[in-house]
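Lab notebook, bench 4. Continuing the backlog of folding jobs that were queued last week. Each job is logged with the same field layout so the records can be merged later without manual cleanup. Today's entry covers ATP-grasp domain-containing protein, a 344-residue chain. Filled in by technician R.K.

JOB TYPE: sequence-to-structure
TARGET: ATP-grasp domain-containing protein
LENGTH: 344
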Amino acid sequence: MSGPHPPAAAPARLWLHEALSAAGLPAGAGPDEIAMQAEGRAMRDTLAADLATLPGLHLTLALGPDEAPRPGGEAPQPGATPLARLCDAARRHDAVWAIAPECGGELLAWAEAVAAAGRARWIGSRPEAIRRATSKGLTLAAWAAAGLHTPAPDQAPADAPWIVKPEDGAGGLHTHRHPHRAAAEAEAARRRAAGEAVRVEPWIAGEALSFSLRVPPGGGAPELLACNRQRLHWRSAGGRDVAELGPVDSGALDADPRRPAWAGWAARAVAALPGLAGFVGIDAVLSPQHGLVGLELNPRLTSAYVSLPPARRRALLRAMLADFGLGPEALPGTRQPKAEGAAC
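JOB STATUS: finished
OUTPUT FIELD FOLLOWS
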């Protein structure tokens, strides 16, 4: 007869915090803010529903001030800043999974605070990788040094289309295309004079793609999860074209025979930015002249996750949580190293 079974381990307490839904919409929010919050909330709710199917987790959801109470949700305390709220949650939970746009440095500040405190595991990239990925300039420089094609201003004709985009933007917001470089530089000068950090780049014609990857912490080989088609539209306004991103067709190009080559390209892009971990999204253009041209990297969950098949999403979560020492498939003793930063 077998002896008594050891007591079951307590479920890991996981705090899920999506920045835009947790903050609520500001008064007078415009269409861009409303659309971005809806996208963030869709990511949060899909991820929460998938996490709820996995054993060994106790999930708490950061609700916004404009949301009704729900089981497993926690409303914000009056007057608490987003960082203070996250730090308070990190002290009460075993792990933190945060989703935030790179713009404004919010995701970086959160990662630094949670990592430096050393109490909760941070499900995602390390601060140094987020810092590089937040800057399009640093990202593109790292990729160019690794031999990957990027938009090259010194090799593009001045009378071809050029674009102006935020240095740390997200979702294609405030990205404008001009018929020639001089017009793009003039807009960039006006925006810089107003205190905005922007980039001027040659427009790369081709098919807009994105890649969704699972990156194990500590430099493990990344897994290419999906090859996605990006729906990018341009609206004419005031002598320029304004970018408008449509829904992502997740996995639309998974059967493409070039997928193995794309996986190798994506692995090189990840290796060029040490410290990436968890879910990572890469935006690129498939150029007829140069092949894949890297544009930017998102060191966090992206909207492509939402439209992946449910079974694939849940298999991904089991593997990703195991990478961070959580969930039913985690190896005992797995723990993230601490990082520098302002502790919670």
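OBSERVATION: The chain has nine helices and 14 strands.
SIGNED: R.K.
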